[in-house]
Amino acid sequence: MDIQIKRYTKDKIPDVLNFEKRLREEENFWGWEINDAYIQAVEKSFDDSEFKNSISLLAYDGNIVIGRIDSTIIASHFDGAKKSYLDWICVIKSYRHRGVAQKLLEELRALLKNNNIDTLIALTASNEEAQNFYRNVPDSEMRDIGIWININ
Predict the structure, then answer these.
(1) Tens-of-pLDDT digits for all 152 residues of the chain?
(2) Distance from C-alpha of 72 to C-alpha of 88, rounded to nearest angstrom
(3) How far apart, in whole angstroms, are the C-alpha atoms of residue 102 and residue 107?
């Protein structure tokens, strides 16, 4: 398997939609629908300046997306620092345990380092497979507890 990592750009939306459909074929517990509203929101995000600090990478096996990682650079007056938040990393189930997620994370870390970002913060999924992945990320430590707060 020859994995290639590419930046997620607007022209790759059809590849990502295919990836998301394949995700659901192998595991159907994802929390959002692939409908017209979703597709329009994703398309619109590529033209919205609010997303200029977003970094999304895709892992390809040939011409098929098999994995994805999404993050955003965040700046805080708390300590005057810029960090990155890891929003999502996912690999199609049948491609897991082959180094795809590690390769995505490695490429993201290199991009962040080139942008003088020295910390990547992530909420970890609560399932055991995800927990095992994060426990084995080099130069990382599990600390603090994440919370999701809905703004109603």
Answers:
(1) 789 999 999 999 999 999 999 998 888 777 778 999 999 999 999 999 999 999 999 999 999 999 999 999 999 898 888 999 988 899 999 999 999 999 999 999 999 999 989 888 876 666 676 666 666 667 767 666 666 655 57
(2) 10
(3) 9
Q: What's the pTM value of the predicted model, to 2 decimals?
A: 0.83
Judge whether 84 and 112 are in contact, CB under 8 Å.
yes
* Nearest Cα to Cα of residue 119 among 151, 71, 152: 71
Q: Residue 90: helix, strand or coil by DSSP?
A: strand
The Cα–Cα gap between 45 and 10 comes to: 9
- Torsion over CA of 92, 95, 98 and 99, rounded to 10 degrees? -30
